[in-house]
Amino acid sequence: MDRSESVNADPVMVSNNEVDRCRYWRNWTGFWWLGLCNNFAYVVMLSAAHDILKQQEKQNATSPTPPTDLHSGVGNSSNSSRYDCNPISTAAVLLADILPTLFIKLTAPFFIHKVPYGFRVLVCVSTAATSFLVVSFSSTVWMSILGVVFASVSSGLGELSFLSLSVYFDRDVLAGWGSGTGGAGVAGALIYSAVTQAGVPPRVTLQIMLVVPAAMVLSYFFLLVFPPVFPQWRPGSLSVDGDSRERRPLMEDSDDEEQSAEEQLPEDKHIGPLTFGDKLRIIKDLLKFIFPLGMVYFAEYFINQGLLELLYFPISRLSHAEQYRWYQTLYQVGVLVSRSSLCCLKIRKLWVLSLLQCVNAVFLGLAVYYQFLPNVWVVFIIILYEGLLGGAAYVNTFYFISKETDERGREFAMATASVGDSLGIALSGAAAFPVHNYFCSL
């Protein structure tokens, strides 16, 4: 750099640039940790609940039973099927996990704006901690399932709240959130497996995981840099009061054309609370995002919970349980990579992703029926690709919703659109039951 440039540089401008850069990275990192913590408890709880259930079955067993790997959801059952089937599809666990989240996402957007963000975060933290404690001290099956329900409530409330929260910050925080949620799947599975593999009992491992809710508290209250008008402990949203015009810079984007377009909007579009009719119109406009996202998640969870346990290759050196674990791990790796790709690649044609994911589901369904795939490595590649499509659909959906929705309805839109993935997952769980039973009856 030219020395004269350095000497004559405005120190106030340099200082402001440094402050802006520090605030940008603190918020990006804060949303990354929020995404990780929000999904981490959910991922770990599923594996832990299965382990606890297995221990309870051993304690309550009065006669020897065929070994079943509950941790992976896959086991060997003595039946006449040509497939190595569980008596009950892994979709049963999926439905127990997703229904509380779906209920929250369907109802909360219509009233959640009346609940301050600070209080919402405390509810998420307390329910996540409760889920760990309930399952770690559970002595019955229903207590373990109750722990999973608490984890589902925490994850569902956290997702719609933090997506709504993102409208108060630079749009790039969505990339941090997406990457964090993708990392939760990989980190949760690896850390839980490593700790239990080291000989730590599942109950103690769950108690160690209480650091995760604590990390969420630190990320939200101490890492994020909130704007002055942010309603931390009082109800409020971008559409509740008349000062919404002061909040317009909070979603600054580097695209000058977009800024000028927003500035040309009539002022009355940014004033006043959303009416019920306004919300219905926003939901109608969101269908072009919700439908492709729901289709992507329907197809991928139909694969994960309805088909993967049937894609078993006996000639492989990997056991059935090991194959299934690797399927899930590679899926999570794909999700992590694509949810972290927003800074490099943005995909507006979301219907292409849903179409490709549906092709995956049909192809693997035919592969299960006709058993024409040569080895497990081909499935590994397809599952990694499946994860890439799912993660890309998620992060691009919310990016373009935040970009294309007007400021007055943006907070409501971000919360409402989160129902798309949960609805797709719930429908896939219901569809996987008859498919599983059909294949296992062959």
From TrEMBL:
Residues 252-265 have a biased composition (Acidic residues). The keyword Hydrolase does not apply. It is found in: Endomembrane system; Lysosome membrane. GO terms for cellular component: endomembrane system; lysosomal membrane. Residues 242-251 have a biased composition (Basic and acidic residues). Keywords: Lysosome, Membrane, Transmembrane, Transmembrane helix, Transport. SUPFAM superfamilies: MFS general substrate transporter. Residues 57-80, 241-265 are annotated as: Disordered. Pfam families: CLN3 (PF02487). InterPro entries: Battenin_disease_Cln3, Battenin_disease_Cln3_subgr, MFS_trans_sf. It is a multi-pass membrane protein. One of its GO terms (biological process) is lysosome organization. Its main location: membrane. This is Battenin. It comes from Chanos chanos.
